[in-house]
Structures are given as C-alpha cells and as structure tokens.
Amino acid sequence: MKNKKWPKVSLVAIATILLWLKTYIAYKTSFEIKIENWRQELILFINPLSFLMILFGLSMFMKEKAQRRYIMVTSFIVSAVLFANVVFYRFFNDFLTIPVLFQTSNMSDLGSSVTELINFSDLLYFADFIVLAIIMKFKPTLLGWREYSKVDRRAFFLVAVAIALFNMGMAETERPQLLTRTFDREMLVKNIGTYNYHLYDAFLQSKSSAQRAMADGSELADIDNYVRANYLPPDDKMFGIAKGKNVILISMESTQDFVINRTVNGEEITPFLNDFIKESYYFNNFYHQTGQGKTSDSEFLVENSLYPLSRGAVFFTHSGNEYTATPEILNDNGYFTASLHANNKSFWNRDIMYQSLGYQRFYSLPDYDVNEENSIGWGLKDIDFLQQSVEHLKAMPKPFYSKFITLTNHFPFELNEEDSFIQPYTSNDKTVNNYFPTVRYEDEALKLFVQKLKDEGLYEDSVIILYGDHYGISENHNKAMREYLGKEITPFESTQLQKVPLIIHIPGQEGKTMTTVGGQIDLKPTILHLLGIDTKKDIDFGSDLFSKERRDFAVLRDGSFITKDQVFTRDTCYDKATGEPTDKEACEPYFESAKNELEYSDQIIYGDLLRFYGEQNEGKDLSDQDPKE
Ligand code: GP9
Ligand code: MN
Q1: What whole-number distance in Å separates Cα of residue 622 and Cα of residue 398?
Q2: Which one of the ligands is nearest to 255 CA?
Q3: Contact at 8 Å (CB) between 433 and 425?
Q4: Which residue among 23, 313, 376, 412 sits deepest, i.e. has the most Cβ atoms within 10 Å of its Cβ?
Q5: Hey, what domains does the chain have and what are their CATH numbers?
Q6: Residue 410: CB within 6 Å of ligand 1?
Q7: How far is the CA of 188 from the centre of ligand 2 (A)?
Q8: What is this structure's pTM?
Q9: Could you identify the atom of ligand 1 that is nearest to the CA of residue 469?
C-alpha cells in the first residue's frame, strides 16, 4: 500500500547511516588501523559511505514491500561480512581475502576456536539490524516510503559517485598508485573501505581465474624449448662449492650500485661493503628487474627466476599459482627455509605468497621486539632487525636458507641523529640528500650483522648473498643526481642507474669482481648450482652467473635491455662505450629474445602453467611454525 504522507524517516537513509556509522565504529574498535594525520582519519570515516549509498540506493527502484525486504536482507549480509572480518582479524590480524577463504588449513584453525573468538557482546555488531527489524515489525509506519522520481534517483547517485570520487582522490594523494600496486590489505581497507576492498579482491580473483581457466598446458611446449635453449651449464669449479652450507640472502632496501666505492662530502658511503667485496664475488653489471611490486617483485625474481608482471604486484595477483621456487627446492634437499622481515606479515601479501614459494617459516613483526626507540620510518631499524634476527638463525635447524629484508633505507630516508654516520648531500633535493646517510646506516647494520655471525660461529658455514632490491632514487630526481654524479642523466644513464649491487661471499673463496651483465632473474640457478643442485629441468628464465658460457644480457621489466656493448631503452639503441645513441641495428639481434623472455614468463604466470609441471602445495600458516618441528 502506498504511504501518501511525507516519509518520517527514509528507510534508505536510515539503513545507510546506521551501517556507515557502525562500520566506522568497528574500524576504530575492532581493527588496528594506523592513522597518521587528519586526512587519513577523514578518508577512513567517509570510505564506507559511497558503497552503502549505492547498495541501498538500488532499492529506490523498488516497490515498498520489495524495498523493505531488500534493505533488511542486504543490511544483514553487509553486517555479516563486517562481522566475519572482525572475527577473522581477532585471530589472524588481517582482513579476509577470497583465496584465504579457500585455504582449508587456515579455516580449520579458525573453526576450532570460533567459540572462543565470539562472545555475547558481539551481538552489538548487529544492533542496527535488530533495531531496524523491531521497528519494521512493530512500528512500520515510523519508516516512511515514497516513490522516487527519476530526478531524485539521479541526484542521489550523483552524490554517491561524487563522494566516491572525493574518497578516491584523497586516497590517491595519501597513497599514490594504491590500486595498481595494491600494497597491503590494511592500506586498502584504510583508503577505499572494507566493502570496496572486497569488491576489488573479487575482481582480481575472477580476472585471474578466467585467464587460468583458459590455459591447458599446451603453451608449455614452446616455452620449454625456449628455456632449454637458454640453459647454461655451471662452471665445474663452482658447482657444489657451497654444498651443505647455510644460505643468508639479504635484500638491501633501495640500494643502487652507484653508491659502492663512492664518497659524499669526502666520506665513504659504504665503507663496510667496499671492504666486503674484496673478499667476495662482486657483480658490478647486475640489474634489478622489478616493476610496480618493488621489493616483492625482487623477491619473486630471485626465488622463481621468472619476471614479475608489468602492472600490479604478482605477490598479490597470483599468489595462488603453482611455483617451483628456491625454498621449495631446498626443502626437498634437507634445508630449513625461512624469510625474516620486521613488518606486517600481510604487506605485499607475503604471508600468503610465501606458502606458494615453499617457505617453512616467516619471521615477521610479532617475532621482533619493536618499540619507539628502535624504530624509524617504516619500522624496526636495520641494526636492531639484523641483531635480533641472529637469535632466530641460531634456533634454526641447519643447514638453513634464510632471506632477510632490510627496511631503513626506504623512501623518505628518515634517520635519527644518533644513526647518522655521515652528513647528507647538499643539493636542493631532500630525497637525494638524505639517501646517503641511510645507505651509510644500512652499511653499518650489515657490518655489525656479519660481526655477530662471526661471534656466533655462523659465518664460516654460510654463503652470504647481498643484493639491492630496486632503485631508491627515481627519475624525478635527475637534477640532483646530475649534480652528484657530474653528468647528464640521459635515458642511457637512467638505465645504468638501475644497476644494484650483487655480492656473493663464499667461505674460503677469494674476492673477484665479475663484469658479466645479469639481473635478479639469474640468482636462482646461480645459488642452486653453488649448492650443488642441478637446474637442468627447471623453468628458469635466468642463468648461472658463474657459467663459462654466459652471454651478457639483462632484460628490464619495461622492455629495456642491456647487452655486453649496448643499452636499449625508450626505442633507442645506445653504445655503452660512449653513452651515445647508435644505429638500431646493433641492438636488433636481441629484440626477439627480450620480447620472448617477458612474454613467455607472463604466459606462465597468467595461465598458472607450472601447475602442469609440479604437484600441489598445501597452504599453511607460517607465522607460528616452530623451527624445530
Ligand atoms: C615493506 C618493504 C618495502 O615490507 O618490503 O617495500 P617497497 O615499498 O620497497 O616495495
Ligand atoms: Mn624495497
């Protein structure tokens, strides 16, 4: 029946406002969302609104009875989704994702303790729904209803869209490239809201499922041929030289190669590394090949010898794929495998991806003693992180394969006074200026770490591999870099600045500078060969950096490539000797290879093709695995 009177309270408005406020209260009381300034607080406050307006607004097209039913049912479902996240968060300190819902071991953990996780007061999460239901039952006339005109609806949806755009605009300024890079779930929820986050998650999921469903493994034949043709046999002298040794792999945050053996204000930037390379293999033509996934992309390259994707972070988009990563291979060879990083475990989706890579244990934030004194910028300072990590190393079964991810030398390169061992550079560019002291701090942290490894008797039994994860100084800082380096930053120089240090220390081996051109993609076969593990049958796009048959070649994720004598970037072929553009013909023989590399690797990831090769990996929570188990 039509209610002719002006509505007392519009059902659409009341349902929207109740759920909006409830969501915000839940954000503040049930999740630990870090808020750094009032803009972030405002984003958090408004972020559920546009979604709820659109969701409930759909009922404006309905008749009274249908509208009531629709609003009640939707309100209940949305409340249930929110509540499911609250319960999940209590246990895992993380937000739900679709792959997680299907991870049986996670869910069974949760299932057994669900009664402990839920209490009577949780009914409060449904308080608004209960109130709505009571009114509807006993005083339905309190809630008005009217037929909405076209103009009403248009105005309503326009407002909703405007709020959504305002929200996105603010989020974009607070966290640029939020959606293409998808940092971590907390950041997504904080910026676009829990409901939009679920939509986004569902979108990612369906996209990759469709691509996966269309693949049948027949594509592998060509790829297999290509990879076989590019396989390089190991140098007999190096194969197995570190058999049975521990591996300590260190990802050096934002560390570019140009800092090695260089000074700022007359002082060495990396005094420790400059010494350490004298007793290690030091690769000075080694490139990072990362894309938007930054650190996680470098991890992906190093562990899989596959390229990351051209957009997004493969750690997020394809964490459910089958991989044959170094940790998995080493598990089968009697190694204990662990990653150590003092950050949220879900950052870059590591907690999930590490399961697919085969890690047995992930030491993340809760495994470290982190407080205000020992933190700066992104979190635990490198010195504290590495020192505390040695205790974890001592507890691990031997031999172990351990990956450390440092953090202090991260943009915006913040440092306390007492940790500044050198003065900043003195250009107009604060980022470039501050980069040097944080690199110097990282160098100090590495020195103390190596010292501690010696003190604890771990040094002689371990291969130590250090690599830079990606650039720290982007092209936005070319002016200050020109000033510092004393040369114009042309596209050629920019490409050369993508070099990151690679240092491999093998006990008992003398130091040597290796000039072969290579990249992060080459680390997997290199490491495995040093440990005496054959890689002939693996699908690796990289090849052993010690092989005598090396062909100097590295492809960057943007399609640029580097050979022995040329650099190809932005459609121009440069002569390395002069740094000047040269005839394109000189680069032409490599075009096909560079294209194939990236395309074949992408095909593997999009089609999840390695599942046609290997067996299935079971999902496991890695945060509380006892290393002795
Ligand atoms: C965060 C750290 C930094 O855990 O890996 O990530 P980045 O921004 O360098 O990719
Ligand atoms: Mn990084």
Answers
A1: 18
A2: 2
A3: yes
A4: 313
A5: 9-212 (no CATH), 238-542 (3.40.720.10)
A6: yes
A7: 19
A8: 0.80
A9: 9
